[in-house]
Amino acid sequence: MNRCLLLALSGALACPAAVPADQPPPAAEHDACQVPNNLILGPRTADRPLPLLSGDAAHGFHPACTVSWTTLSPKSEPLPVVGCYRGNLLQVANDAACGGGTGRLWVSIRWVLTTGERQAAQTRATTCQQLDTGSYAATRDYGCVPAAKAPAAASGAAPRTFPDSAPGPAAAAPPAATAPAAGTPHPDP
Amino acid sequence: MSMGGARSIARGLRAARPRLLPGALHSLLLAAVALFFLNFNLLGTASPSKRYSQDLVYAWFGDQPWLYPRPLPASTHGAREQPHVVVVIIDEQALALRGAHWPVPLQFHSQFLAELEVLRPRGILLDFLLLDPSPREDICELLGVGARLRADDIRLYLAVTRREDLDALDAAGCRDARGQPLVARHIFTPVSVVRQADDTDFVGRRYPFEQLAAGGRPLPSAAVHMYCGDGRTPASADCLGRLTGAGLANAGFELAWSPQGDPFNQRWSHASCVETASPLQAILNKPALPRESRCPPVATLFATALLSPEADPTLGAANEALFTLADGAFLMVGGNFRGTGDLVTTPLHTLLPGVYYHAVALQNLLAFKGYPKVRKEFRTPKIAFYSYDLLVLWLLAAIFLWRQHWLYGVRPLGLSPFAISPAARSWLAPFFARFPAPVWILCATVLLLCMAAYHDLQLIAVGLIIVAVVIVELRVAGEGEIWERARGLLLYLAAMSLSLAVIVGAVWVGYRWLRLPPGDWLGYFSFAAFGFFVAHTAILEFGRRIDELYAARAASGQPP
């Protein structure tokens, strides 16, 4: 009986979904990237600005600027989603809201309402989370995949940070950039 | 009170005066001995008792507002006027949403700060050490976003190991759109994230005020700097100077800790956020401390939920719950990555990610309005706080001596009310004498061995033994002796009740007004209840002998 309990407990402890970073997170029940002809209807909250990102999946995303909805859509019309990244970033055709040179801009789905979301059921529940508090007599590997990010690897300067008390940087090479995931652009309707 | 009553009391006091002074002095002597032994910390042996008694208080009553008036659960108010703390956890899932890995890239921090800006927090702590060289464009991006947040009156705090850590960011020579230099220390306030743990059990009960630097300026700890630097908390102007600058190694304040999880966390937590442990359970040989709960006492927002509404749709279609939670909050952004070891053992002996150490410390500062509980050894003047201990022990010693005086008055033979009477011994000895010595000694040994090994047996066995002895006493003792013993027991109970009242009052006064953590009550109680005073009464005999010698010398006309 005790052995069964131990097995169940160790199974439960081993289960928490630590997603390997080089893979996309598990597909959500409602994935914005799977919705055809998705439209951004407007901001979720009228009085909050929208943080916009530039860049792309291959080279990473960069904060571009923070604007109001009317800057992004001057006529307050729904905007077609022209790109999508891992179900949480939506790309719009606007490339001028933050000034020139940014390319098409991205916005987090957290701040905007979409047609796809409206169609989804409204009875979804919170995803259960779990703090990982297991203490291990082992040092975490860096999961190094060399030459994945050419500029950083070439300069020998990796964009790495550590949570405090984390193992030191040692001589590990920078982590690999993830492969672009399910970013299926949708043509304008 | 009538005039006659007052006169009789005054007469009584006058009559008792010759006894009062020696009694007071003897109890003071006993209290001083007790104080010494309470603080006799050879090889740290005195520490566990103090720490454990402190943990018990928070485990039993830590959820009570009269003990720990922590800010209301963030999910129930969210008003900007009421500062509160929210932990934001970045984990592998959150990084994967943006295609990033652990260790967290600077690029992710920049993106994430931009997202947090929308929440309009009061301040943000990045509990990440940005130690490694990064591409210049990533550094400039981070500083650019940071400058924007500072312009929005959102204060930013960055974990560092020393002030010079920011130099690496400044070395990038970043400039804003107008060509003005972006200086890291103008954007991020560097804060210490050094953790302290008690030497005896490595539990993180104490939060350092600052990190002392050899030859340099001390670095205030994250929670201290966030509280004092906010400008909107009810801290006095000299908050930082008052809390830091003592220059004492390891100086810090004790963390009050609630066993109750924040109700907000119930939405994501598998574990219950309602702790049901009671003092009664602890007394009945159950685990005195609450069982390990993974529901932390600070409202926690997972970065996954912030980045993806799918992870937590209950934050509201218009983000109502999200804004209620985070608007005007101190956001403490920390990591929770498997195998990184960034964990802290809490006073309730559970493990939580390290960022909770800072979050609870800030909650403490908010709860106690910038005047947290600090141990005696870090107070000034130290002697005054130990004198308070002496005063409490003096009262307890006086009660003990008063009981002894009355007990010996009632029972001239000096038999303790708990001792087995000679008549009962005479009855019990022949009973056991039916068996040869090896048999009854082995039986007694096996019984005691079982009691030691099986804790559930202890209370049952002790209870049965007491009942058996009482039955024997009632059977063999005379009526007068039973009556005297009952009076002795009543006297003991009265003295114990009085002692407990003194202990509760002393701990409360110490906690409420002297800002002392509740770590001394078990020591006081052990002296009052478990006969520790009795163990040290030899000093009184010695004192009486000295008094007699002094009186004899004075009577014979010799100089003292």
For the residues shown, what is the average pLDDT of chain A? 68
* Main β sheet profile of chain B: 6 strands, parallel
Q: Assess the beta-strand content of chain A as a share of residues.
A: 15-25%
Rg result of chain B = 31 Å
Give the oligomeric state.
Answer: heterodimer
Q: Biggest sheet of chain A: strands, sense, closure?
A: 5 strands, antiparallel
Helix content of chain A: 10-25%
Instruction: Kindly give the count of domains of chain B.
Output: 2
Task: Sum this structure up briefly.
The complex is a heterodimer of chains A (189) and B (560). Helices cover 15% and strands 19% of the residues of chain A.
What does this structure look like?
The complex is a heterodimer of chains A (189) and B (560). Chain A is an alpha+beta fold. Chain A contains 4 helices and 9 strands; from the N terminus they run H-E-E-E-H-E-E-E-E-E-H-H-E. Chain A has a domain at 32-119. In chain A, the strands form 2 sheets. Chain A has a 5-stranded antiparallel sheet. A 3-stranded antiparallel sheet of chain A has the order 4-1-8. In chain A, a hairpin with a 3-residue loop joins strand 5 (83-85) and strand 6 (89-91). Chain B is of the alpha/beta class. Chain B has 2 domains: 20-50 and 380-421 and 477-555, no CATH class; 70-258 and 297-367, no CATH class. Chain B has a 6-stranded parallel sheet, with helices on both faces. A two-stranded antiparallel sheet of chain B has the order 6-9. A two-stranded antiparallel sheet of chain B has the order 7-8. At the A-B interface, strand 2, strand 3, helix 4 and strand 9 of A face helix 3, helix 4, strand 3, helix 5 and helix 11 of B. Strand 9 of chain A pairs antiparallel with strand 3 (128-129) of chain B, so a sheet runs across the interface.
List keywords for this structure.
A: 189 residues; alpha+beta; 4 helices; 15% helix; disordered N terminus; disordered C terminus; B: 560 residues; alpha/beta; two-stranded antiparallel ribbon; 21 helices; 50% helix
